[in-house]
Amino acid sequence: MRIAGRAAVVVMSMLSLAACSASDRASTGDPSTSTNSSPTSAATSPSSGSSPATNASGPVCTAADIKVTGAAGQKPTITIPTTCQPPKDLLSVDLTPGTGAAIKAGDTADMNYLLVTWSDQKEVDTSWQAGRTPYQMKNVGQSPVIQGWNEGMIGLKEGGRRLLVVPGDKGYGPQGRAPIKPNETLVFVVDAVKVTPAQ
């Protein structure tokens, strides 16, 4: 389900990361709430009162269990399985190999992305939307975004498409980030549009 009125919810909440305490993110250089750059307070409010994400029982899913359709450069479709549990570790798998420069720590990467939440299979945010432009992630590895992005983008080549499955502890943690539930597993498909090496 698309949430039409919440364009840039996830990107802007990544930029603020109020859901992450200083002790949780000290090693990644993430900013505290005092550096919140989101223009919409609702986009940066913890999902207090929300029930934690619940998931299916069974074996742990692998990247191969998650179905992604659509060509690189176009908006994909993500189908999350209901017969296995979300991965407990970060998964980063290239779906389409890129031919350009690979993202390295410190680089700037312009990326299109789609985010679906695992527990309810809802589309939460996408840059493949009228009026949107690729998200520019500066200083990859130490960028003020969720930990799963800083770790998971390394090595993706310009022109490539990657599936990124982010467990709750590398996403928004036990506080969540409205409309994302506490401890939610996040499923991204990311296209690397442009990679600019660090100066």
From TrEMBL:
Species classification: Bacteria, Bacillati, Actinomycetota, Actinomycetes, Pseudonocardiales
Group of enzyme by EC: isomerase
Region annotation (Disordered) ranges: 23-59
Protein keywords: Isomerase, Rotamase, Signal
Family: Belongs to the FKBP-type PPIase family.
Catalytic activity line of the entry: [protein]-peptidylproline (omega=180) = [protein]-peptidylproline (omega=0)
Source superkingdom: Bacteria
GO molecular function term, any single one: peptidyl-prolyl cis-trans isomerase activity
PANTHER family in the record: 39 KDA FK506-BINDING NUCLEAR PROTEIN (PTHR43811:SF19), FKBP-TYPE PEPTIDYL-PROLYL CIS-TRANS ISOMERASE FKPA (PTHR43811)
Signal peptide: 1-18
Domain PPIase FKBP-type, residue spans: 106-196
Compositional bias ranges of the Low complexity kind: 31-59
Protein name from the UniProt record: Peptidyl-prolyl cis-trans isomerase
EC number, as in UniProt: 5.2.1.8
